[in-house]
Automatic annotation (TrEMBL), chain A:
Pfam families xref list: ELP6
Pathway, per record: tRNA modification; 5-methoxycarbonylmethyl-2-thiouridine-tRNA biosynthesis
Subcellular location: Cytoplasm; Nucleus
Superkingdom of origin organism: Eukaryota
Gene: Elp6
Record GO biological process: tRNA wobble uridine modification
PANTHER family cross-referenced by the UniProt entry: ELONGATOR COMPLEX PROTEIN 6
Lineage: Eukaryota, Metazoa, Chordata, Craniata, Vertebrata
Keywords, sorted A to Z: Cytoplasm, Nucleus, tRNA processing
Entries under Gene3D superfamilies matching the protein: P-loop containing nucleotide triphosphate hydrolases
Any single Gene Ontology cellular-component annotation: elongator holoenzyme complex
Family: Belongs to the ELP6 family.
Main location: cytoplasm
Identification of the protein by name: Elongator complex protein 6
Automatic annotation (TrEMBL), chain B:
Signal sequence interval, chain numbering: none
Source organism of this protein record: Bucorvus abyssinicus
Similarity section: Belongs to the ELP4 family.
Protein name (record): Elongator complex protein 4
Gene3D superfamilies: P-loop containing nucleotide triphosphate hydrolases
């Protein structure tokens, strides 16, 4: 409870972990607020069905609050005039605001997004969910849309305060990173989040290149050092292969193709 | 679909035209946007489709000659794109996917009459409507987005009109996005004024494409963009990223290793839609060449190292290029170190 998990990928795609956590938490009976910035709802739905969970059903019974970033952005930009005056401001309204002075000023406002997260996860009284989860895929998109790294980190911080400390929920966030990346803002966000995470799942491509049987390796870092007991972080490394409905993990060098 | 242009934009224009031509032949609607060349002119230059019989005969002759040289593993990579023409070395065993085109002839105007096409030529658009709401991006991009959205809505590609029985696909082609002609200065300076213009545009475009029945190809002069962070973000936001590196003007043109080819194809990312994994082909080394009538993409076949006096320089170059070539796409593992056995 109250944990912040960071999913980080380098040189490969770690979105299978997002699908896993989504179906895992839904099956466990938690209420999930999913901020899906990169893909459409049907993409996640189809994959979730392969994993045995129906997202539409979860949405209908209120277990899943899905913010589809792409759709919300379109509604915001191309929406009719009447919708602009509705009571609920769009969570992504920072895209539209462009101050005439400098580009640093008013488009760093992720407050609307945070309000959205807060209202969707605050228990309504008649809820009986086993837990609360905020899932974000992926955080780097916010930087592409014009926010500053500080704004993104503030947003995450506010979310942690509300979700982890107050509501005892979990947060899972996906970020991309690269070793020789020139995207300094992204690296800043990623490094900062790494320091604050309780658990880091770091998915990397193999150093030796592409392999059909081993898609990559995953490093599981349990940040025990944050608990101030003097212990170092526990690091475990496994390799994995992704199949259509499943991901198999195995110890390094012991892929099924080799044995 | 996102194509990084090669230095002189020769070959990326070819791919662009192929995409549009395929749309014409399949009866899809087209939307062409450009800041440099008027879309009418672009459409006039689309290659003519080949009729089945004549082409199969020609290819058949070529195949027999080619087979004798042991070139049997030509790669079919067109399935990575949506409906692009497919070139094969052995058309007899293939399933027909897409159409073939003859580059020496242009498409006849009768073929255009059956489809609807829309164009967006930036200099015209800028002069027509002076005022419109600008979002977080340059006005040229904002106008383009509005234009695309209007077409999608009016023609019913987003399913908003349930009475339209016939569902069609809109193929969007945008040429040279990010260049200075679009009013974006990311190509000219290291710290551009508005870094997020292009990425925001792409995000909104992605939303539009996901919501409607359309596919889009964009060519970008990547070599001109100074700030590499933008390219990384752009790659993240695209489904498919292909880089074309032509040998014109580089030292590789005279390199005997590459004498059969006109350039390399780097696939940086392939789509991972609706499933946990993506479908990766066996090979990553792809090169393209432009024959008189065809543009083919094949597996890079390096000639055997026969000469006695192979210099160190060429071996080094080979190792370098092998390292480059073995870098896979973003969705799969990318190797960094060149291991010597």
């Amino acid at each position: 409870q109250g944990k912040f998990t960071l999913l980080r990928d380098t040189r490969t795609d770690g979105s299978f972990l997002v699908h896993h956590f989504l179906s895992f938490y839904l099956r466990a009976g938690c209420k999930v607020c999913f901020v899906a910035l990169l893909q459409s709802f049907s993409h996640y739905n189809i994959v979730a069905q392969k994993l045995g969970v129906s997202l539409t059903a979860a949405k209908e019974r209120g277990q899943l609050v899905f913010l589809e970033g792409l759709k919300s952005c379109l509604d915001l930009l191309f929406g009719e005039e009447e919708e602009e005056q509705s009571e609920q401001p769009s969570p992504l309204q920072f895209i539209r605001a462009k101050s005439p002075f400098s580009s640093r000023e008013s488009n760093s406002d992720l407050r609307a997004l945070f309000d959205f997260v807060r209202t969707s996860l605050t228990p309504a009284g008649s809820d009986s969910w086993k837990g609360l989860v905020l899932l974000v895929d992926d955080l780097g998109v916010l930087l592409s849309l014009g926010t500053t790294p500080v704004a993104v980190l503030d947003f995450i911080h506010y979310c942690r305060v509300v979700v982890c400390s107050q509501l005892k929920g979990n947060i899972v966030v996906l970020v991309h990173s690269n070793e020789d990346s020139e995207d300094e803002e992204n690296e800043l966000v990623v490094n900062s989040l790494c320091h604050h995470s309780d658990l880091i799942l770091w998915v990397e491509g193999l150093a030796t290149g592409f392999c059909k049987d081993v898609h990559g390796q995953i490093k599981i870092i349990r940040r025990v050092s944050l608990e101030l007991t003097g212990e170092q972080d526990h690091v475990q490394i496994y390799q994995y292969k992704i199949q259509d409905k499943n991901v198999t993990f195995f110890a390094r060098g012991l892929s099924a193709a080799v044995l | 679909v996102f194509t990084e242009e090669d230095k002189y934009a020769l070959y990326s224009n070819l791919l662009f035209k192929y995409f549009l031509a395929e749309g014409v032949v399949c009866g899809h609607d087209l939307f062409v946007a450009s800041a440099k060349v008027h879309p009418d002119n672009i459409l006039k230059e689309l290659p003519a489709p080949l009729l089945d019989d004549t082409h199969r005969n020609e290819l058949g002759e070529e195949t027999t000659a080619v087979k004798a040289e042991d070139f049997q593993d030509s790669m079919k990579i067109a399935w990575r794109y949506q409906n692009l023409p497919k070139m094969e070395a052995s058309p007899t065993t293939s399933t027909k996917f897409g159409h073939y085109y003859d580059l020496s002839k242009t498409m006849s105007p009768e073929l255009f009459q059956s489809i609807k096409w829309h164009s967006f030529y930036l200099p015209e658009e800028l002069s027509s409507q002076p005022k419109m709401k600008t979002w977080n991006m340059s006005s040229a991009y904002a106008r383009l987005l509005q234009s695309i959205q209007r077409i999608i809505y009016q023609e019913g590609f987003d399913g908003s009109d349930p009475q339209k029985k016939q569902k069609n696909i809109l193929r969007i082609g945008i040429q040279s996005l990010g260049s200075m002609l679009w009013g974006d200065d990311i190509c000219s300076s290291d710290t551009p004024e508005d870094m997020h213009s292009l990425t925001t545009f792409l995000y909104v475009l992605r939303g539009l494409l996901r919501k409607s029945l359309s596919a889009c190809i964009i060519t970008v002069p990547a070599h001109l963009i100074q700030n590499k962070a933008i390219m990384e973000r752009v790659t993240n936001l695209s489904d498919i990223v292909v880089g074309l590196e032509s040998f014109i003007g580089s030292e590789r043109e005279t390199n005997p290793l590459y004498k059969d080819y006109h350039g390399l194809v780097h696939v940086h990312q392939i789509p991972q839609l609706n499933s946990l994994i993506c479908d990766v082909s066996d090979t990553k080394d792809l090169a393209f060449r432009l024959k008189r009538k065809l543009f083919t993409i094949e597996r890079l076949h390096l000639p055997p190292d026969l000469s006695d006096t192979v210099s160190r320089a060429s071996k080094q170059d080979l190792a370098e290029s092998a390292k480059l070539l073995s870098s896979g796409c973003g969705a799969m593992a990318i190797g960094k170190k060149h291991l010597d056995f």
